[in-house]
Amino acid sequence: MKDTLGVLLAGGAGERLFPLTRDRAKPAVPFGGQYRIIDITLSNCINSDLRKVYILTQYKSLSLNRHIREGWGPVVANELGEFIEILPPMQRVSVNWYMGTADAVYQNIYSIGSEQPKYVIILSGDHIYKMNYQLMLDQHIQSGAHVTLATLPIKPEEVPRFGVVDVARNGEINGFLEKPKETKLRSPFNPERVDASMGIYIFNTDVLLPELIKDAEDPNSKHDFGHNILPNLLGRFKMMAYNFVDENKQEALYWRDVGTLEAYYEANLDLASVSPIFNLYDKSWPMRTRSYQYPPAKFVFGEPGRTGMAINSVISGGSIISGAVVRNSVLSHDVRVNSYADVDSSIIFSHVNIGRHSRIRHAIIDRDVHIPDGAVIGYDPAEDKRNYFVTPSGLTVVTRDYSVYENPVSQNFIQPGQPGK
């Protein structure tokens, strides 16, 4: 790993996670109470001993930049040449913003070249999984490959959502299919599955950089690794597949693209279950994040009908459950749930105040929202649509000012800055 540079793509707009990505980058969206989505990939890097990482940001990156600077800068030793560094679009070799995954890396070609790495590993900052990149690099070197792709076995009916990889029995890659409606391809490692690309690539640097330059000069290119760079390498360089080895140590492989609100919601609520599929408590593969100086969570009042308690829930520091009930939910830092309130199957971001007698279920409440006394959210989809953002599946998302801008005459909107009770 000392000869390897990590390039983490974290610049996507995240339209499918709107309105959570209205004011923040997708990798900066909270996950599991105290984490951000990007923390999962960065934890994989540190656990894999990959300690030279460039993070390529673009859209609405203020909170992401601050999180990386304050939470991840102290993790690496700068005096040993280690770094986790943010690279925004600098227009050093182009007048455009990043036009694709390959273009994002190309625009930082001088920064990559200045480190003189022997290998470059391309990563994405918006997936949930545990993976030891060192094992993938070991295979890459031992096989003599110029490029290695991480692949994941998926069910044949899932192929419209993935880039499909045609893998030979010796692990060499013969072709690609980009999100086909169906395919007869099957994995040589599991005949009931199809090999899909995880968006994780290891390149020999002397192969990657010339290909990026060639792609940048092609006016017809989409400047994307999956669409252009990798297919153009077929037949010219040795390209191998690396079958995903899951460090989550569960019976089923765990890899989640939390790019939609429903997928994001389900991945979070899994963490609150009695036996979550994704284990945050594995000491052999720790998940790191920025440390916040909040006091411990507190639960107060034990009167009949007014008991502060949380059941099958994740409660972060600084939160107070004051005579209220929280079930099957994930609460971030500094959340106050006041007396007689009921929160069920919901994700509550930091600095939220939930008023007395409120009822909330199947909802995501964004940060800094103050829920007034007696508010009812998640019980009447028609009413929720008048005030908040509701997905086709019925998941309600409440942001600080969504209802104010969308429906200012509503009688039941949540006002920014309204004091909690």
Describe what this molecule looks like in 3D.
The chain is an alpha/beta fold and 421 residues long. It has 10 helices and 31 strands. The chain has 2 domains: 4-271, Spore Coat Polysaccharide Biosynthesis Protein SpsA, Chain A; 298-406, 3 Solenoid (UDP N-Acetylglucosamine Acyltransferase, domain 1). The relative contact order is 0.11. 21% of the residues lie in helices and 27% in strands. Strand 2 and strand 3 form a beta hairpin. Keywords: ATP-binding, Carbohydrate metabolism, Glycogen biosynthesis, Glycogen metabolism, Nucleotide-binding, Nucleotidyltransferase, Transferase.
Mean pLDDT across residues: 90
Largest sheet: 7 strands, mixed
CATH fold description of the largest domain = Spore Coat Polysaccharide Biosynthesis Protein SpsA, Chain A
Shape: globular
When the domains are counted, the total is 2
Q: What is the CATH superfamily of the largest domain?
A: Spore Coat Polysaccharide Biosynthesis Protein SpsA, Chain A
- Quaternary status: single chain
The number of helical runs is: 10
Share of residues in strands: 25-35%
Radius of gyration: 23 Å
Helix content: 10-25%
Strand order of the largest sheet: 5-4-1-6-11-8-12
